[in-house]
Design brief:
The structure holds 2 protein chains of 2 kinds. Chain A has 18 helices and 2 strands. By secondary structure, chain A is mainly α. In chain A, strand 1 and strand 2 form a beta hairpin. Chain B is an alpha/beta fold. In chain B, strand 1, helix 2 and strand 2 form a beta-alpha-beta unit. The chains are: A mainly alpha, B alpha/beta.
Chain lengths: 374, 436
């Protein structure tokens, strides 16, 4: 740069500069995005592909690569009862976490979308649980649900869950609910804010129009808000599915995770697939990295299939909801406009000569006609 | 002046250790360079999971000028994970000296070249401790403590049921001099018949102690292969004995390490705990404010051992020579006495075992009992049997598997029979090649 300003530019230099700026336009966008792709290649794509190599070999932590075993690791995993049990647990915990989370997040977002005082304060406060480390959440919830925690002694005083000393650590379903509640606690606020952003982008005219049409708050929520945030719904459900199925920290630390803990309970009541994978590969003793890699691939496939199903479901649910009312509303408007036009037509000859009101601006037309009639 | 004095001390120390090295002589050729002035680091790191006596670290720094930094882990399990990962990645993230627990010693020593060979120190430890800390005759770990077992019990709770009032009568209750695990469990059944809490925190400790006394519990010492668990009558008998007791609800099913264990003491959930010496400090901490805890000098089957640790030096470290000096320093009999005062862990060093500082120390939490004396007697009574039987590479894993079966019964998730079936099923699913 300094030489350039010192020496007067000649034709050749300009040519260089032009060529450079052409490169700049062509190449630099790729350079700008390259850090992500380089990092992804090193820390994402490579391990992903390398995992294939590990999965088809006998592989141990210290000894490294052993014999090629083909698909033996996969068949071994599929024969393990614990793998299937952990799969059941994962889906159960996912449902207990995802369903209440979705409902609550939508509700909170709808409330935050109203005209509240100190809006920013409310919006920030729903995000507070998200700031708490999952490890801390797991430790605290583990204590709350523990035998001597905040919850259980009081429930038992009321005569509930008296069947066992520590129901949330013994009963399979209850442990899933407890872990699901951690997921709800952590992620609801975050998703509520995403929903809120989407809701804010819904054109206000739609609400005004539906109010004019006589829709109540509830009807507006289901017929205007939900269909309008459909893409966001799909996005949230997908990320929730992928993240929720990979749950690890919460289950690992639910029972404290110390000596003898962290394995998902004595009867593997809350062992999830990722925890099972971790125990196989990096746990206390098994040292089966090949089989763990196979679990990773099988589970990845399951997640892809499940996400697809989820995607299709979400799409069809929100579109069927939206299709019905939207058509009705258009028809409704057109009908109103036509009716008013007819009414105006019978009132005076001027209006009768007007062409039929276009369906997309019925209210304005009606006003005009009314004005003309007066 | 100060610097000279320091380095003079260091030279003397180095000379003394060189002498010690020379004295042991001929112990295999693998020893690396010696600790000297030219390769002395500014600091050494130690990975462990309990509090260090500060005077011990201070005096090492005074003598050698090396600052010792303790990388303290919350529990043994996390120290184990870090060590395991470090060993499988050529020493990345390891400290100069690592504390290794007996329960996972075999796993860590699977590749002996990972560890620096330590010079022999004659007559410092009980023989079986040295044997445990050696791989194929080469010492790779300097013993710190051993875990002689006793039973801690709450005499106020037992007095409430009228079964026992002090350590002597509690000893009689669980079977006196001829105590077996069966008499211990029967005493538990008697206790829970009239009390409103459990007899013991968890039966898993006791079960593991009983397993430990078998000469070859899970694996064939000849081939190292696991026995077929379904056909392993010795283990099955023990399992059923403890599982039946678990079915009779004599235990709360909350072992040390469980999130509720500390709260269980505060809520007076159980009246006794199978307690290795190193656990006494942990119990005193968790049961703080609850009166009446005592240590009984009677133990089923003549005694036992749970755990105990070693200081070992990863061979990939940059300062192995001085790290060996540090491991040596931390396991002298004097150091062992400091450890006893700090954490209550019982020494594996002969000279320290009989030292009056340990035998005559009164423990205020346990009603001024001479806890060191009791554990010393129990360790002597247990003798070499405390070293335990054969432990192959799958010992820890199979033990966990079987112990989880006891936990299954304790949590009312299965009957004793069902739990055994499930344990055998899980073992079979792993597809071991088994010994005949």
């Amino acid at each position: 740069m300094s030489t350039r300003s010192a020496v007067p530019p000649d034709a050749r230099r300009v040519g260089w500069g032009q060529r450079f700026s052409r490169w700049d336009i062509k190449v630099s966008p790729y350079l700008y995005v390259s850090p992500f792709f380089l990092l992804f290649a090193v820390f994402g794509a490579f391990p992903l592909l390398f995992n294939v190599v590990v999965a088809v070999h006998d592989w141990h932590r210290r000894a490294g690569m052993g014999d090629f075993v083909g698909l033996d690791n996969f068949t071994w995993v599929l024969r393990q009862p614990l793998f299937w049990r952990s799969l059941e647990n994962t889906f159960s915990i996912f449902l207990w976490g995802a369903v209440p989370q979705l409902v609550l997040a939508l509700l909170i977002a709808a409330v935050l979308d109203q005209n509240l005082r100190v809006r920013t304060f409310w919006r920030m406060s729903v995000l507070v649980p998200f700031v708490v480390m999952p490890v801390a959440t797991a430790m605290i919830f583990g204590q709350v649900f523990g035998q001597f925690g905040l919850l259980v002694p009081h429930l038992q005083d009321l005569g509930l869950l008296t069947g066992s000393d520590s129901p949330f650590f013994q009963d399979r379903l209850l442990s899933h609910m407890a872990i699901g509640s951690m997921v709800v606690f952590r992620w609801t606020g975050y998703n509520a804010l995403i929903f809120l952003a989407a809701m804010q982008a819904v054109p206000r005219e739609l609400y005004e129009a539906s109010t004019v049409d006589g829709a109540g708050r509830l009807r507006q929520f289901f017929s205007v808000t939900l269909p309008s945030i459909r893409p966001t719904m799909i996005f949230v459900t997908l990320t929730m599915t992928i993240g929720g199925l990979q749950i690890f920290d919460e289950v690992r630390l639910y029972d404290g995770g110390g000596t003898g803990g962290g394995k998902g309970g004595a009867d593997n009541q809350w062992t999830t697939v990722v925890l099972y994978l971790y125990e196989l590969g990096f746990g206390d003793w098994q040292d089966r990295l090949g089989q763990a890699a196979a679990v990773g691939w099988i589970f990845a496939l399951i997640i892809v299939v499940f996400s697809l199903v989820n995607f299709l479901l979400t799409r069809s649910i929100s579109s069927s909801r939206s299709r019905g009312p939207r058509v009705t509303r258009a028809q409704h408007r057109a009908a109103v406009a036509r009716a008013r036009a007819v009414a105006a037509g019978s009132a005076g000859p001027l209006a009768a000569g007007l062409p039929p009101a276009p369906a997309d601006a019925p209210a304005v037309d009606a006003d005009l006609q009314e004005g003309a009639n007066r | 002046m100060r610097i000279t004095a320091k380095s003079a001390g260091a030279v003397a120390f180095a000379a003394a250790s060189a002498l010690a090295l020379a004295a042991c002589g001929g112990g295999g050729g693998g020893a690396s360079e010696e600790a000297g002035e030219d390769n002395k680091p500014d600091k050494l790191t130690v990975a462990a999971w309990m509090d260090f006596p500060t005077e011990l670290l201070d005096s090492f720094e005074e003598e050698t000028g090396i600052e010792v930094v303790v990388n303290r882990f919350p529990d043994g399990a996390s120290a184990q994970t870090v060590l395991r990962n470090g060993l499988s990645s050529d020493g990345a993230g390891l400290s100069d000296v690592h504390l290794v627990e007996l329960d996972w010693w075999t796993e860590m020593m699977a590749v002996p070249e990972d560890w620096a060979e330590l010079p022999e120190v004659p007559d410092r430890w009980v023989d079986w401790k040295v044997a445990q800390g050696s791989v194929d005759g080469t010492i790779t770990g300097y013993g710190t403590d051993i875990g002689p077992l006793a039973i801690a019990f709450n005499q106020d709770m037992l007095a409430g049921t009228g079964l026992a009032t002090d350590p002597e009568s509690f000893g009689e209750l669980i079977g006196g001099d001829d105590a077996t695990w069966q008499t211990f469990l029967d005493a538990g059944r008697q206790y829970v018949a009239t009390s409103d809490n459990y007899f013991v925190d968890s039966l898993t400790n006791a079960f593991q102690a009983a397993i430990n006394l078998l000469p070859a519990a899970f694996e064939d010492p000849e081939s190292g292969l696991p026995y077929d668990l379904a056909e392993n009558a010795e283990v099955k008998d023990l399992f059923m004995m403890f599982a039946d007791a678990a079915e009779d609800d004599i235990s709360a099913g909350i072992a040390i390490g469980h999130a509720d264990w500390g709260a269980g003491f505060q809520n007076k959930q159980w009246a006794s705990v199978v307690t290795p010496a190193w656990m006494t400090g942990i119990i005193a901490e968790n049961a703080d404010g609850v009166d009446g805890w005592r240590i009984a000098s009677t133990f089923p089957e003549g005694g036992g051992n749970w755990g105990g640790s070693f200081f070992a030096v990863p061979s990939t470290g940059p300062n192995t020579a001085w790290a060996i000096e540090l491991a040596d320093y931390l396991t002298t009999p004097d150091a062992a006495i400091d450890w006893f005062n700090e954490t209550g862990q019982f020494p594996s060093q002969l000279e320290a075992m009989s030292a009056p500082e340990i035998a005559e120390a009164e423990n205020p939490f346990f009603g001024d009992q001479r806890v060191g004396q009791i554990y010393g007697d129990l360790a002597a009574a247990a003798g070499d049997a405390a070293a335990g039987g054969y432990r192959g590479e799958n010992f820890a894993g199979i033990q966990t598997l079987v112990t989880d079966g006891i936990r299954l019964v304790e949590s009312d998730s299965a009957t004793a029979e069902q739990a055994w079936e499930s344990v055998v099923g899980e073992f079979d699913a792993l597809g071991f090649e088994t010994a005949d």
